[in-house]
Amino acid sequence: MKLSAKEFMASIAFDRKLYEEEIECSIAHAKMLAGNGIITEEETEKIVAALKEIRKEIQDGKLRFTIEHEDVHSGIHIFLTDKIGELAKVMRVGRGVNDQVVADSRLFLKKETEAINELLTNLLDTLEGIARENVNTIMPGYSHLQRSQPVTLAHHFLAYYQMFNRDRKRFANCLEGINLLPPDCGASAGTSFDLDRTMLAEELGFDGFLPNATDAASDRDFAMEFINCCAIAMTHLSRFCEDLILWDTVEFDFIEIDLEFCTQSKVMPQKRNLDVAELIRGKAGRVYGDLINLLTIFKGLPMTYNRDMQEDKVPVMDAANTLESSLYLFVEMIKTMKINRGNMQRAAKYGYMNATELFNYLSDKGIDSENSARIVGKVVEYAINRGKPIEELWLDDLKNFSQKFDSDVYDEIAIRNVIESKKSTGSTSFKSVEEQLAQIKRDKKRK
């Protein structure tokens, strides 16, 4: 493979995606120069008009970046010079490439974070809606992938609601760190031009600006934090996808996802593979790689800017794109989900998950724990051998194991009553789930 040093050093292949942010920052910079009396209003209007024209021509495919442009900053400057000539040089006053790249990156991630929060909000609304429709849908809860205790589908979905709600809070917190404009960095020491950075920050919608030029030039903590947030959100999506993949199998048969999100095996046509969920699960690893990539780039860099930092954009852009596409398709996928409530109920009924309540019943009748456990074990074995749930055994059958059993045992071990018996905050009881949903409604009103 033959490659010139110029081609190797060029970043235009990926940072061209920042052209809108570069133009926005340049427009704001031109207005600031006018506000400080460095250029006239007429010159500002000419620069701004040319920059807007460049943006439109890039969007329409009339202007294209090439390897000769090296990076997005040089590319836009060359396009601007072609349109307005020597006047374009004034855009170099009071800023350097270090300022531009950090400002562009922060503006880009500000938009991406806001877009992700919108997608997360849509996911949360969808999960809340499914939970409200399934407060009474009973299913097995699992531990070690074994049926453990009966729960409601609403309770299960609200667990994921809390995960993704924490993701939304994480991104909101991350946005606070992103939403700061770099000062006049220069190489790291700043510039001799006394420009109105507050005006520039307000023009671009930033909350303020960073207090130290050296830190501003060398910092990418905001990018690391952003990818970390993406990685955690992808972890939650991956776990949820694993549930859906299992539930959509013949063995579970709890749900059915629309064929749009599946593929059918060509040689085994009876198989429906939930490929979208599997790909989201796989793409979680991709985002983890993006995080390790960025952390590794920065772990040994001296102050301030080093060319290594050019490589920050690829993992950041990839993580953002991967999470956004995954969130969008995940929501579209679960909206098509058909819930086989009868199968969920049967799985809970034949999972013998009320054995704990049978144990508690005997303990309350004065039988010690060791003997209670032995009796319950025999009852469960007896029920399994006859293909019956415990609650469908005759009282005489139960009395064969202990005379302490009486008719009140059936109230204790009825699956709905088992669920309703949970008293702790955040439990799966119908009352608790309703309270969790009410709290979500109250939280929304406060926003």
| Alpha-beta classification | mainly alpha
The main sheet comes to:
2 strands, antiparallel
Number of helices: 19
Classify the helix fraction into a percent range: 55-70%
How large, in whole angstroms, is the Cα Rg?
A: 30 Å
Oligomer: single chain
Low-confidence stretches: none
Adjacency order of strands in the biggest sheet: 1-2
How far apart lie the N and C ends?
Answer: 56 Å
Q: Average pLDDT, to the nearest integer? A: 94
- Which overall shape is indicated by the principal axes computed on the Cα atoms? elongated
Order of helices and strands: HHHHHHEEHEHEHHEEEHHEHHHHHHH
What's the β-strand tally?
A: 8
Overall description:
The protein is mainly α and 447 residues long. It has 19 helices and eight strands. It has helices at 5-9, 12-15, 19-35, 41-59, 72-84, 97-133, 153-178, 197-204, 213-218, 221-247, 275-298, 313-335, 341-349, 355-364, 369-385, 395-399, 409-413, 415-420, 430-446, and strands at residues 138-143, 146-152, 180-181, 208-209, 255-256, 263-264, 272-273, 338-339. The chain has a two-stranded antiparallel sheet. It has a two-stranded parallel ribbon with strand order 3-4. Strands 5-8 form a two-stranded antiparallel sheet. Strand 1 (138-143) and strand 2 (146-152) form a beta hairpin. Helix 10 runs parallel beside helix 12 (313-335) and helix 14 packs across helix 15 (369-385). The radius of gyration is 30 Å and the shape is elongated. The model has no long low-confidence stretch (mean pLDDT 94).
